[in-house]
Design goal:
The complex is a heterodimer of chains A (680) and B (276). In chain A, 28% of the residues lie in helices and 26% in strands. Chain A is of the alpha+beta class. In chain A, strands 2-36-27-1-26-9-10-25 form an 8-stranded mixed β-sheet, sandwiched between helices. In chain A, a hairpin with a 2-residue loop joins strand 17 and strand 18. Chain B folds into 2 domains: 144 residues, no CATH class; 109 residues, Sandwich (Immunoglobulin-like), CATH 2.60.40. Chain B is built from 6 helices and 8 strands; from the N terminus they run ααααβββββββαβα. In chain B, helix 2 crosses helix 4, helix 2 packs across helix 6 and helix 3 crosses helix 4. The chains are: A alpha+beta (680), B alpha+beta (276). Chains A and B meet through strand 16, strand 17 and strand 18 of A and strand 3 and strand 4 of B.
Chain lengths: 680, 276
């Protein structure tokens, strides 16, 4: 009986305890749910890793500003975990560096060595290194049209753009392990690599084209523009002819590849100006936009009709653009952004899964989708002033901050990666660190605009501070950049230098792509840091014998390049890297033979990148693009902040992927050459 | 004709003021569905009492009989062809028998759709949003007169006027500042021309255009009284933003209403004993 009683009481106690525990648990869960909504954080208890990729954030400037107490939030993360230089890629170019980050291994694993590549068998046709459009096969020709039908019985192959980055991205390991990962604006991943298990989402970043298939082509209309549209590289200039106070212009959209001779599709729009009120009205596809000088329109959806053979209806695709009125009179000037892919109804796949971007657009509306959002080309080509560029770049940053807020609200657990381009593209225009004279700005101006970069760093610090307040105790947070920054005051034409030493011929060659004599050329430069030998058996018209001659030529080139001095005795090239020594992996087929590591203040000249030659070898850089990072990798390291202790002494970009996998309890795969930063 | 439409609109506005008032509080999909259900039933009843139900029943029976004959005598070509012809004639007769009720329904349905368009075709501006206001002037005016837009308490003129003489119009950008239904005044000399300006969240009646003295324009834009025939200002319109939603969005509400009201009418037909 007694036993029975004790059993009975025990059960009652147990039931009471269980009920109390359930209520307590419910209260805690409800409380944390409520607190979660108050503190704007995920309610999931699963493992969280957040990476903020700040393109081009410089560790030197960060260090200085932290010392001055100007980056309190980054200093807080640094104190909690660590702050370090982050070894960058060779060469330190964004597509290469981000691919290193993605693969956890060097360029030999992913096959991206520069912004620009060439096929050895067709060196006169360089192409963008991270993606390539493969022409289609077969077509059905009707009248002016050429249709590619990819179904039975036609089975034509339409052209497609493929990602050229090779190797295994680290999120594939997370995907397989059932860990979710979400990337916003990830560079070097267009077209997006597919998710096999459905745990990976990605909005494509750098490399994503606009509707014209370019990396961003703005359109500029002015009364003093050329009669026939001129392509300025990254933008076009067109004359606007007013009759009375009205003019008609054409907005150029995507190319209609269904035509035998592909033509861009245009949309007509009307411009009416009122000089008395100093304003203008733009009418496009039934929409009216009123602008004053210095104001931007909202995003507009533009409907492009791609003609098809009669009686088929036209195929319709949408793009988005914004108008910016610069001046009403005396010289009417109007800028139109590149026609971006419409995120609410994308004409091409710009995310993985393809509807990911549409979901974002449902919440945020329309936003920039091209890879390069800050219109540096408009600044370099003189369409924007510094202040106009700054305003446009600020608009981009505001959009991205809204996207970050969306990303954090949408985040539960797993990996979240968010990318900021502002720090890179604004630095290219405004960075000028040190006392060296700026090639185009006065010292006061250079200081003023460099002040914008410092302001931007403080803005980003505040954003990271908010993130740390929300997730600091719940997630491992990385803040990292792919490279740092350096002044770019003088430019070096590698091809002109090769010509002067007789490596490249003829002596009056204007461009290796046009009038280079391959039978007399032993070496040539293409891309920003690449130097190629005209190697027999590899290049179509190679003349350098592999083996001894190749080795001798390589050594000679390295010695001579490293000895180059400017007029004032400054060293121009800090180091020349032999790729067979610094690259390892299976994807080195298109690698240059040598990588030029420029000294701070120097970079490859604008013309040499696409094979052009100039009479002078060394020149001032008079472009608005007055800072760069395509120098020697040792001079422009990236930055790494982490709220966990960094144990590696010299962390590298390739170490981040293993570190992320380690955070989720996954081993470092053989495909990676980096090692976790959390192990000493 | 225009005067008649103006009078009809006055009646419709008065009725809709109360009948459609709940639309302001209900979710878009629900209100669009309820309106479609009610109008589906009403259309069915109108059809019942304005059509010749006996004749329709006879014709439908005849069609049924001929369809049956078609399946029974499919081997006999002459009978099959005759039956097919009779089915065709029956369908034509059914159509003719529906003409009267359709004519009767045309006017109330047009008025109803114009009232629904006020709710679903566009949404009010949100505070801090901008819209373009366009005033159209009479084609016979050689020059655009000196014109001034005075914003109400709820809005502010941000840009303009931008005069477009080739199109006889003047535009302003109006900035919404306060929720509510405001009035904007256009001053030309001593004359004042007003236009409604709606700011707010959710559902509210939005008048896209104060119409010209033209019966069709007046029919499409019933909310505001049209400008007189001799007015120097022909019409004033505001480019309100589109409303999104599969049931009550700008591009969808009409299709949704049509489909749901038809489905409802067919579904409830047996209960109301209506031959269609």
């Amino acid at each position: 009986m007694a036993k029975s009683n004790s059993y009975s009481i025990g059960r009652r106690k147990f039931l009471k305890g269980a009920a109390a525990a359930a209520i307590g648990g419910g209260v805690v869960a409800g409380g944390s749910y409520w607190l979660g909504s108050i503190r704007r954080v995920s309610r999931s208890v699963a493992k969280k890793v957040i990476i903020i990729g700040v393109d081009g954030m410089d560790p030197g400037l960060c260090g200085e500003m932290m010392k001055q107490g100007l980056l309190p939030n980054l200093a807080k993360i640094s104190a909690a975990g660590g702050f370090s230089n982050l070894g960058t890629s060779i060469p330190p170019q964004s597509p290469v560096a981000w691919a290193n980050f993605i693969n956890g291994a060097g360029p030999g694993s992913h096959g991206i060595f520069d912004f620009i590549h060439r096929h050895p068998q067709s060196p006169r046709a360089p192409f963008y290194s991270a993606a390539e459009t493969i022409p289609g096969e077969g077509a059905w020709e009707i009248g002016d049209h050429r249709l590619q039908l990819d179904f039975f019985p036609f089975n034509h192959k339409p052209p497609k753009t493929v990602l050229r980055r090779q190797g295994i991205p680290f999120w594939d390991y997370l995907d397989k392990a059932g860990i979710s990962s979400t990337f916003y604006d990830l560079p070097s991943n267009y077209p997006a690599s597919p998710s096999e298990y459905g745990n990976h989402r990605c909005l494509c970043g750098m490399g994503t084209p606009d509707m014209r298939g370019s990396y961003g082509t703005y359109q500029y209309f002015s009364e003093d523009g050329p009669l026939k549209t001129v392509d300025d590289g990254g933008g076009t200039r067109t004359r606007l002819a007013f009759f009375g106070d009205s003019a008609i212009a054409q907005l150029v959209g995507p190319e209609n590849s269904m035509l035998k001779v592909p033509q861009p599709v245009t949309v007509e729009f009307e411009v009416h100006r009122d000089t008395l009120s100093n304003a203008a009205l733009i009418e496009i596809q039934g929409e009216k936009i009123l602008l004053k000088p210095g104001t931007w329109s909202r995003w507009l959806r533009v409907d492009f009709g791609l003609s098809t053979p009669t009686p088929l209806p036209n195929k319709r695709v949408h793009g988005i653009c914004r108008f910016y009125l610069q001046e009403v009179s005396p010289n009417f000037r109007l800028y139109v952004t590149p026609v971006n892919v419409d995120p609410s109804d994308p004409a091409i796949q710009i995310s993985e899964p393809s509807d990911f971007v549409e979901g974002i657009s449902e919440q945020l509306g329309l936003f920039y989708t091209t890879g390069f959002q800050e219109d540096h080309k408009a600044r370099s080509n003189g369409v924007f002033t510094d202040d106009e560029f700054l305003k446009q770049a600020t608009m981009v940053l505001d959009e991205r901050l809204a996207l970050l807020e969306y990303a954090l609200n949408d985040y539960d657990d797993g990996l979240l990666f968010f990318y900021f381009s502002s720090s890179d593209l604004q630095s290219h225009i405004f960075w000028w660190n040190g006392d060296a004279p700026h090639p185009t700005r006065s010292a006061a101006e250079a200081r003023k605009y460099f002040g914008h970069i410092q302001h931007l760093y403080r803005q980003l610090d505040a954003v990271i501070g908010d993130l740390n307040d929300r997730y600091g105790g719940k997630a491992t947070i990385f803040v990292m950049s792919d490279h740092g920054f350096a002044n770019f005051g003088r430019q070096f034409n590698l091809n002109s230098w090769l010509r002067d030493y007789g490596y490249l011929n003829p002596h009056n060659c204007s461009s290796i792509l046009v009038d280079g004599n391959w039978s007399r050329t032993r070496a040539y430069g293409l891309g920003i840091n690449g130097l190629y030998l005209n190697l027999k058996g590899r290049e179509r018209e190679g003349i350098v014998e592999p083996g001894e001659e190749q080795e001798k030529l390589t050594k000679q080139l390295i010695a001579r390049l490293q000895a180059v001095r400017d007029y004032n005795g400054e060293k121009v090239i800090r180091h020349v890297y032999q790729t067979d020594e610094v690259y390892s992996g299976n994807a080195t087929e298109l690698a240059p033979d040598l990588i030029i590591g420029y000294a701070p203040g120097y970079r490859a000249s604008w013309t040499t990148c696409l094979g052009d030659l100039t009479p002078e070898v060394l020149m001032d850089n008079d472009s608005a693009w007055s800072a760069d990072h395509c120098a020697d990798a040792l001079d422009v390291p990236g930055v790494l902040y982490c709220n966990q202790k960094i144990r590696t002494k010299q962390p590298n970009l390739t170490d981040l992927a293993p570190s992320i996998l380690a955070e989720f309890g996954l081993p470092t795969p053989n495909s990676m050459s980096g090692r976790s930063i959390f192990t000493s | 004709m225009t005067e008649l439409v103006v009078w009809l609109n006055t009646v419709a506005n008065a009725c809709a003021e109360y009948a459609l008032a709940p639309l302001a509080f209900l979710p878009g999909w629900l209100s669009a569905t309820l309106v479609a259900i009610v109008t589906g039933i009403l259309m069915l009843l109108i059809f019942k009492y304005t059509s010749n139900q006996v004749s329709i029943k006879q014709v439908r029976n005849g069609i049924r009989a001929n369809l049956l004959a078609l399946s029974l005598f499919q081997d006999n070509i002459s009978v099959s062809l005759r039956c097919q012809a009779r089915v065709l004639v029956g369908a034509c007769r059914l159509f003719l028998l529906a003409v009267v009720p359709m004519l009767v329904m045309t006017v109330p349905m047009c008025l109803l759709l114009a009232q629904m368009a006020l709710w679903y075709q566009a949404r009010p501006l949100h505070v801090d949003e901008e819209a373009v206001l366009t005033a159209f002037f009479a084609d016979n005016s050689n020059e655009i007169p000196e014109v001034q837009l005075e914003a109400a308490s709820g809005g502010e003129v941000k840009i303009g006027p931008v005069r477009v003489p080739s199109k006889h119009m003047v535009c302003w950008s109006v900035w919404a500042q306060e929720d509510g239904c405001h009035r904007l005044s256009l001053r030309i000399g001593k004359q004042t021309f007003e236009k409604e300006f709606t700011v707010g969240e959710g559902f509210a009646r939005v008048s896209l255009r104060r119409p010209a003295w033209n019966w069709f324009d007046v029919l499409l834009h019933p909310r505001e009284t049209p400008f007189s025939q001799d007015s120097i200002v022909r019409a004033i319109e505001i480019d309100y933003p589109s409303r999104h939603g599969w049931a009550s969005g700008s591009g969808f509400w009409l299709i949704y209403w049509f489909v749901v009201s038809m489905v409802v009418a067919f579904c409830v037909r047996p209960w109301f004993n209506v031959n269609i």
